[in-house]
Every structure is written in C-alpha cells, then in structure tokens.
Amino acid sequence: MRLESSENNLLNVDEAHRALGKYSYTNIVKSIDQANTGYRIVALSATPGNNEAKVQEVLENLNIARLEAKDENDSDVRPYVQSKDVKEVIIKETSAITAINDIFNDILMKPIKVMNNMNMFPPQSKLIITKPAEINRTRVMQLLEEFNSKVDEYTMLIGYGNCYWVISFY
Length: 170
Known about the structure:
This protein has 170 residues and is mainly alpha-helical. It contains 6 helices and 2 strands.
C-alpha cells in the first residue's frame, strides 16, 4: 500500500469494535504506520463491548490514545434520543406459535448444519451451534472473533468462497 502523507491524514473507522485479531481495520492501521505518515483516527462504535480486555485490544490495534464514551444520558446526546415507552407483553404459547417456531428453527438449522459440516471449529468448541436457540448476539460476536483471529487458517481450510459465506451468514 502506497500512502502519501499529504493525501492521507484522517482515517474514519465505523464499527470499530470489530478491530480484533487480523481484522482489516487492524491491517490498514499497520500499513499506515509503516508508511510513517501523520494521521488521526476517528473510530466509532455503538456497541463497544463490555469486555475490558477486548476494548483495550481495539484501542491498541487502532492506535487510539484517547477514548470518549457517550450514552443516551450525556447532555450533547440527549436532545437526539427519542423517548421510550417500554411495556412487557407476555404471550401464552399456543400450538400455532409452537408450529411456527418449529418451522423457523428448521429454516435456521439448514445453513447452520452446512457451516458446522465445514469442520471449522474443533468438536469440543463452544462455537459450534447445535440449536437455533443458541444463536444470540454474544454467540455471533464470539464466532466472528474466533473466525477473524484465524481467518488465514480458515481460508486455507474451507476456501475463500466458503469463508465469505460464513461471514455473510452471520
């Protein structure tokens, strides 16, 4: 990568919480560092994570020296937050809801089975999904972190097209 200091002095990174392992953002920052150009980074994330070690890894990977966190209660954010009226509604499970849930689970399991059959993860791995109910935000983030940390290995193992399919699925 060829960089001219006069042309590249600001890098905007959206979804910065993904800058873990060998993720592309990390590689871009390394390339800019090697070019020895003066630059600044603005890194944004609506979901920075709750694991301090991972947040620190993102900060280090992106060479971030100062972190500024905002939430809906900050005075400069509050004017843009819509009011919320949260009501809990409990729905009794009926045979129709159960049937729809079963159909939905069957649909979800088809690509999950394909991915599991690629044998990307060791059999004892916590990342192998066996039931759709196991899919949640935390699980998907764990899977993506595992995948990103070994992307070269997985690309060799299952091929680039299949790696792209796995990322697209999640």
